[in-house]
Amino acid sequence: MHNRNFSRTSSPKPAPTGSSPTARWILALGTQLAALGLLATALPISPASAITIRIPRSRNPYRVCALELIDAGVGAEAAAAACADALRPRDISRCALQINRKTNISGVEALSSCRRVRRPKELASCVVNINGKSRTQPAAPLVVLDGCRRSLLPQQFAECVVGLSGRLDFPTDRLIATCLDPSDSVSQFDGRPAPTPPVELIPPPLPLN
How do residues 114-160 score in pLDDT, each as one tens digit? Predict the structure, then answer.
C-alpha cells in the first residue's frame, strides 16, 4: 500500500534572519552609514564651508558700480577705490552716472560730490531737477552741484529753487544762495547788514587773594 507520508513533499524551513547574503550586506551598509553620521556630527564645520552664497555676476553691486562709473567717464583706479569704499556702491555709481548723463558735469566731478553726501540718490535728483526745471536764467552746472551737495535735504532744496524760479525773476544762482541761507540772502538783497547774534556776557574774573 502506498504510504502517503512518502508522497508528500516537505516544505523548506525558513532561513534564520540575517543568514542570507542580502540581509548581511544591508546590515553592514547600515552600520557604516550610522558610523559616518556620528563622525560628521562630531567634526566641527567652518562657517565658510557650511554655507556658500553665490551672487550672480549681473547683480553683484561692486561689479555694477564699477561698470556704471566707467560708463560715466571715471578711470578704472578711481572707480575701484570709490566702489570699494562705499557702503552702498550702486547708490554712488547711479548718482554719478545720472548727473553725468543729464547735465554737462563730468563723471569725475559728479563722483566727488556723490561720495561726500549721505543721500547720493537725492543729490542726483536735486542736480537734474534744478538744471532741467528752473525757469529763470540757468546757473553754471557746478554751482548747482555745489548747492545740492551743501544742502542737508537735497530734495527739499531743489523744490525750493524750482518753486521760486516759477514766480520770481531771479537768476538761478541767486535762488540757490537764498534757499541755502535765507537770512544771509535777505540782507544782501535789501542792502542792510545781517543782524549779529548777541554776545554773551562773561562775568569778570574774581580777584586773586
Answer: 999 999 999 999 999 999 998 888 899 999 999 999 999 999 999 99
Q: Which grid cell is 104?
A: 554737462
Q: What region does 191 belong to: left with phi over 0, alpha with psi -120 to 50, or beta?
A: left
Closest among 116, 118, 120 to 90, alpha carbons compared? 120
DSSP state of 193: P
CA distance 156 to 164: 12
pTM to 2 decimals? Answer: 0.61
pLDDT in tens, 16-66: 554 566 666 666 666 666 665 655 555 555 544 445 555 455 689 999 999
To which residue does cell 552664497 refer? 53
Confidence class for position 6, pLDDT limits 50, 70, 90: very low
Query: Nearest Cα to 154, choosing from 183, 130, 187?
Result: 130
Where on the phi/psi map is residue 18: left (φ > 0), alpha (ψ -120 to 50), or beta? Answer: left
Determine contact, residues 110/95, Cβ cutoff 8 Å.
Answer: yes
Dihedrals φ, ψ of 63, to 5°? -65, -45
Tell me if 89 sits within 8 A of 65, measured CB to CB. yes
130 closest CA partner among 88, 90, 177, 89: 177
- The single-letter code of the amino acid at 87 is L
